[in-house]
Design goal:
CATH architecture of the largest domain: 3-Layer(aba) Sandwich
Number of helices: 17
Radius of gyration: 24 Å
Oligomer: single chain
Bound molecules: adenosine-5'-triphosphate, magnesium ion
Largest sheet: 6 strands, mixed
CATH topology of the largest domain: Rossmann fold
Number of strands: 20
Strand content: 15-25%
Helix content: 25-40%
Distance between the termini: 58 Å
Number of domains: 2
C-alpha cells in the first residue's frame, strides 16, 4: 500500500517536557488514521511539525517516499498537506470564497473569481454540503465553518488531510455528515489523520488507530482488531469507569430560581426568550440542546457577564439579577467558561498568576502593598497537585499547557477555596469536558459531583446527551431561548429528547 507520509524518529522538546519522543508514524493513501492520546500526549505538536508550524529537534519526514524539509505551512501546502486546527483560522469578515483563495496566489494559482466561485460550489456539492461561496464566514454555524476549512484544503488538491479534534464543535447530525464526507475523500485517495478523544468515533471512522502516550507511540492497530478497553489501556494504562457512581439522595430544597429570564444575544435578537428553571440544593441540573439555542447566553447572564432585560435570578431567596461578576463571586457563584483557551485563561501569564487572578486581592496573599509570594507559591503548589495539573512548575506560561490541563487549571481557580472561607454555592459549568481526554473528563465530572455532594448547586451545560445522563440529576432541554422540558435521566426516551432538541415537542412534567 502506498505511503503518503512517513515520519521517522521525530523529537520535539519544550522546556521541561519532551512533547515528541522518537516518533515513527505512517499514513497510507486512502486511509483514515485516528490519533489518540491523553491531553498533553503530543498529538497536536506532532501534527504542527508536519504542517511546518514547529521545527523538530530531530527526525525525518518523507512525503510520497521523498525526504522533505517543511519549514512553514507554505511548504506544507505545496507538498499537498492541509490542516484544520482545534480552533478555526478563518477570517469572519471575509466571504467563504475570499477565505478559500487567500494565499493561493502565493502558491502560484491564477484567480478568476467567477470560475472559482463555481468550483467551490461544485466541490461543496460533491461532499453533500451546501456552502454558498459569497456569504460571510461570520454568518456560518460551526459545522459550516469547518466545511469551509475543508473546502479550502480540498480546493488546493491536498493529498494529506489533518483534522485536530474536528468533532468537538459539532452536533451529532453534523458529525455524521462529516464522517460521510471524510469517507468519500478517503475513497478518492486522500490520506486523513484524525485526532479525537472519542474512542467510539475512532473505532467507527478509521482504518488504523495510533495511540500516543507521554510523547511516544505506544501502539498502532487496525481498527477492526482492537476495542475500547484495549485503547483505554494503551492511553492511560488503566481502565476508566464509564459509569459514575453518584450515590446521592435526591434533594428537594430549591436553591436557585430562574424566572422569566430574557436577554439579547450578540446579534441583537432575543437569545433568552423566557427561561424558567429551578436548581435544587446538591443538584446537578443539565442543560442539553443544539449549540446556539441560548445556552451560552444563559450561562453569561448567570455569571454576570451579560445583562438580562427582564426576569429574576434568586439564590437562596435573594435576587442577584445583573449583579457584577465580582459581587457574584463573593456570593459564591463560580463560572467555568466554554472554550477554556479562549475565555478561561490569560495565556501569557504564568500558571500561578492565572490561578491567583482573582485571589491576589485577598488575605493572606496580599497586604495593602505587598503580595506575599511565599504564601502564593505554597498554595499554588498545593492546589495544582490537588487538581492534577500536569506541569514542570507554576512559573511557566499557561499557554504551554495542553487543553486538558488548562481545564484543570480553570477548575482549580474557580472551585478551590483560594479565598479563605469561600465556597462555591452555585457552579455554572459551560461545556466543561469538551475537548478533554477520557481521564480528564472523568476527573472534571467527578469533581463536580463531589462539589454537588458537599452542597453546591450546579448548572451543567453540555452537547453530549449520554454525558448528561451520567452526570446530572435532572436534565432540561433548551431550544430557541426556552426550556422545552425537564426530566430525570432515563425518564424520557432518546427519541423524544431529540424531538425536544429540535423544538418539535415539549414536556410539562417534573
Ligand atoms: N508552544 C509550546 N511551548 C511549550 N510547551 C508546549 C508547547 N506546545 C505544547 N507544549 C507541551 O507539549 C506537550 C504536548 O502538547 P500537545 O498540545 O501536543 O498535546 P495534545 O496531545 O495535543 O493534547 P490535547 O489533547 O490536550 O490537545 C504538553 O506537555 C504541552 O504542555
Ligand atoms: Mg491537541
Amino acid at each position: 500500500m502506498e505511503e503518503l507520509l512517513h515520519l521517522k524518529g521525530i523529537v520535539k522538546k519544550f522546556p521541561g517536557v519532551v512533547a515528541n519522543d522518537n516518533v515513527d508514524f505512517t499514513l497510507r493513501k486512502g486511509e483514515i488514521h485516528a490519533l489518540l492520546g491523553e491531553n498533553g500526549a503530543g498529538k497536536t505538536t506532532l501534527m504542527n511539525i508536519v504542517y511546518g508550524l514547529y521545527k523538530p529537534d530531530a527526525g525525518e519526514i518523507y512525503v510520497e517516499g521523498k525526504r522533505v524539509e517543511i519549514r512553514s505551512p507554505r511548504d506544507a501546502i505545496k507538498l499537498g498537506i492541509g490542516m484544520v486546527h482545534q480552533n478555526f483560522k478563518l477570517i469572519p469578515s471575509h466571504t467563504v470564497m475570499e477565505n478559500i483563495i487567500l494565499g493561493l496566489k502565493d502558491v502560484g494559482f491564477v484567480i478568476n473569481r467567477k470560475k472559482v466561485g463555481e468550483e467551490i460550489r461544485k466541490l461543496s456539492e460533491q461532499y453533500g454540503w451546501r456552502i454558498d461561496p459569497y456569504v460571510y464566514v461570520w454568518q456560518l454555524s460551526a459545522g459550516e465553518k469547518q466545511q469551509v476549512e475543508l473546502l479550502k484544503i480540498l480546493y488546493r488538491k491536498a493529498k494529506i488531510l489533518i483534522l485536530d479534534e474536528p468533532t468537538s464543535v459539532l452536533t451529532p447530525q453534523e458529525c455524521r455528515n462529516l464522517f460521510h464526507a471524510l469517507r468519500k475523500m478517503a475513497e478518492e485517495g486522500i490520506g486523513i489523520i484524525f485526532i479525537t478523544h472519542k474512542l467510539e468515533e475512532a473505532l467507527s471512522i478509521s482504518d488504523r488507530i495510533t495511540v500516543m502516550r507521554k510523547g511516544k507511540i505506544v501502539a498502532t492497530k487496525n481498527a477492526w482488531e482492537t476495542s475500547i478497553e484495549e485503547l483505554t489501556n494503551y492511553m492511560i494504562g488503566r481502565p476508566v469507569l464509564f459509569k459514575l457512581d453518584k450515590n446521592k439522595t435526591d434533594s428537594s430544597e430549591d436553591f436557585i430560581l430562574i424566572r422569566n429570564l430574557k436577554a439579547y444575544g450578540d446579534t441583537g435578537a432575543l437569545a433568552l426568550k423566557n427561561v424558567n428553571l429551578t436548581i435544587r440544593k446538591n443538584e446537578i441540573l443539565g442543560i442539553i440542546g443544539v449549540t446556539g439555542n441560548g445556552q451560552q447566553e444563559l450561562a453569561e447572564v448567570l455569571a454576570g457577564l451579560r445583562k438580562a432585560i427582564d426576569g429574576q435570578v434568586l439564590i437562596d431567596g435573594m435576587n442577584i439579577l445583573n449583579y457584577s461578576p465580582l459581587k457574584l463571586i463573593e456570593l459564591g457563584v463560580a463560572y467555568i467558561p466554554p472554550e477554556p483557551i479562549k475565555y478561561g485563561i490569560a495565556p501569557n501569564l504564568t500558571i500561578r498568576d492565572n490561578l491567583f487572578l482573582k485571589a491576589y486581592r485577598y488575605k493572606p496573599y496580599s497586604s495593602r502593598i505587598f503580595i506575599n509570594l511565599r504564601e502564593v507559591e505554597k498554595k499554588a503548589e498545593e492546589i495544582i497537585r490537588r487538581f492534577n495539573v500536569v506541569c514542570p512548575n507554576t512559573s511557566i506560561k499557561a499557554r504551554s499547557l495542553s487543553g486538558g490541563n488548562i481545564q484543570r487549571l480553570i477548575l482549580a481557580r474557580e472551585l478551590s477555596e483560594l479565598i479563605n472561607g469561600w465556597k462555591p454555592r452555585f457552579i455554572i459549568a459551560a461545556y466543561p469536558t469538551k475537548g478533554l481526554d477520557i481521564s480528564a473528563a472523568e476527573f472534571v465530572n467527578r469533581t463536580l459531583i463531589d462539589y454537588s455532594k458537599t452542597g453546591s448547586s450546579i448548572l451543567y451545560i453540555t452537547e453530549d446527551i449520554e454525558e448528561a445522563m451520567m452526570v446530572c440529576d435532572r436534565i432540561a432541554v433548551m431550544y430557541d431561548g426556552r426550556i422545552m422540558g425537564v426530566f430525570k435521566p432515563g425518564e424520557v426516551s432518546i427519541e423524544k429528547i431529540g424531538l425536544m432538541m429540535a423544538g418539535a415537542e415539549t414536556l410539562t412534567t417534573s
